[in-house]
């Protein structure tokens, strides 16, 4: 069976600088893969390559077994993308934002569905008819996550999804992502939050110097050991 | 496609910045159309009032006359070019060329060129009419509506999410821009259509004018689209686009106008007036044959009646008036040809400026272009020739004066 997401010896150059250098990984259906790395490690760039915004300078990325460069629209259609510091429209309410983006995706949803998704991310009902301009950072992030949920795509690409969320919201979000993966959605999330990654992911990859330098999996239902990963992360950072 | 247009229309309805420019466009269009209608109404009222005075004044002047020469001397005849039913949208050359005269049997060219032009000084940009709005202001509004479509989303870090969600950039930016261009075009055109209905403009002209404006907006859209492909900040894009607009809408037309005028010197109307007046004045002191010879050359049918015996005879007087026109004729035709040449070259130069192209097209539709104004002057000449043809046999064949005959004086036909 083809994997929903696959990077094959992916290399990437941005403005003359090598960002990724021969990165390979696959994410299986229903799996949560967390790509961990420091600032500027190339995490966001990896996601942008899966979305067809950046062209590999070597190797290729596949979505559902198909090269992204071959059919960008098909890849994008299969993916819900939560950008780093997602910013929706400040002059529109949560409902209006969701309506707009879902229309844009060609997948409009009714008010009940919107409310169900906003309930799942625990955005207060009172806030939903307010403009996003008046939201806190975390509330905005929750709205963006609700949008990703509502897309109901087979694949989720999440860039620093918990940034701005409070600890309770982070826990809830981790439960949410696990539930989604349990339902068959494939999740690739990039973060520098070691603890969070170990909490939620089935597998953690460590990205450094443009290379995948480590991989950690949870053994038989256990969590990935945060200490081990953190040690590796810190060691690599120092090196 | 319809769904995405509806989506972007709803989006536009919430975008205050864009709404501001669109509402401004609507108000400017309403203003331009109503100024235009007020202006053509005033011109029509002026003409109507003059028509009324014209007959009465002439009847009054003729009452006390005792010979043909006196009648011809004192009877003025109104000539005019009424504004067309589309002139409200493009006043064009009506602002700088005369559209009404009161002529009499005297030498004509001077009368044409001394006429009171309401030479309004509209400066560099010209009158604020719909043609100006459509040609010059609309592109600017379009630039303001479109220039930062992408750049603003990039700045807000929303660009990738939008495009990733839409699947292809095409299904995102095309409808968004199209909705804005359509809204702008409609808000500009609706007042024009109302004006056209009020003025009774023909459907063909309304549709053609709308098509021209839409075509120009599409061209500017293409320009904005190409420029905003440049990976630059919104302010750089805006600066470049405003620069292009200045070049195409203001500088290019001004430079080509100056160039064309320098390349085609036009003797001004004053020179014609002067030359003719000198000829006429000199004739008093010249031997009568010096006048009658060139006159008879033009009117061989009057050769047998061209003998002037007394010191003053009306037929001699009118002959030297006509010779005045004959003397001025080369200068007149030079003037006319130069204006036509200027106009033709301006037409070619307009190919470099969408603004000039639109303005010229509107003036053509409105019959307010240079050729229409020259056409009016030619109509005055034809009418004046009819007056001469009417009076000459009466004077030269020395028919007894009969006031009733003057009831058959030719009428000016504004469409003739
Ligand atoms: N728009 C851009 N143009 C050119 N180079 C860029 C651009 N964005 C990022 N880069 C470069 O690409 C490299 C990887 O950046 P990327 O954003 O993928 O890192 P990241 O792992 O997501 O970092 P962070 O944790 O800070 O989000 C960096 O060296 C960065 O300088
Ligand atoms: Mg990043």
From TrEMBL, chain A:
Keywords associated with the record: ATP-binding, Nucleotide-binding, Transport
Superkingdom classification of source: Bacteria
Start and end residues of each ABC transporter domain: 5-234
GO molecular function annotations of the record: ATP binding
InterPro entries: AAA+_ATPase, ABC_transporter-like_ATP-bd, ABC_Transporter_VariousFunc
Pfam family, one: ABC_tran
Keyword Nucleotide-binding: yes
Keyword ATP-binding: yes
Classification via PROSITE patterns: ABC_TRANSPORTER_2
Protein name stated in the entry: ABC transporter ATP-binding protein
Species this chain originates from: Pacificimonas pallii
TrEMBL record, chain B:
One Pfam short name: DUF3526
Keyword RNA-binding: no
UniProt xrefs under PROSITE patterns: PROKAR_LIPOPROTEIN
InterPro entries in alphabetical order: DUF3526 (IPR021913)
Keywords recorded for this protein, A-Z: Membrane, Transmembrane, Transmembrane helix
TM spans (from-to): 130-149, 177-198, 204-224, 236-255
Protein name in the entry: DUF3526 domain-containing protein
